Automatic annotation (TrEMBL):
Entry protein name: DNA-binding response OmpR family regulator
Origin superkingdom: Bacteria
GO molecular function, one term: DNA binding
Keyword terms of this UniProt record: DNA-binding, Phosphoprotein
Domain Response regulatory: 9-118
Amino acid sequence: MPAPLSGLRILVLEDEALIALDVDQLCRDHGAEDVILAANLREAQLAAMPYDVAIIDVMLDGEPTLDFARSIQAAGVPFVFASGYDQLDELFAGFPDVRLVSKPYSGEDLVEAVTASIRKLSASADG
């Protein structure tokens, strides 16, 4: 059975360096081909496309990432939010089909959410 993230190129938008490094290793341990780490929106916007999926923290040093999320959603890139900001329903109202994995999260929960986001996008593209 192939690893759940086998061959994927994943963007991780996370400003906490230790969390970013943990997510990088988690993704690689689950088969990711490449992981692109971005600590701020500028780095994320400069990240070489295409990537297959993204893991996005909702706030980076107090700056919301929702516009970036909308832009990759419009480009057809699946993503999940991984954030400690899980009580802000108004933030997530514009993303009803996007999964939020609340910090602190288990690695298995994050990997499952990422694979589910890819399956969901594939199913909607096929249907």
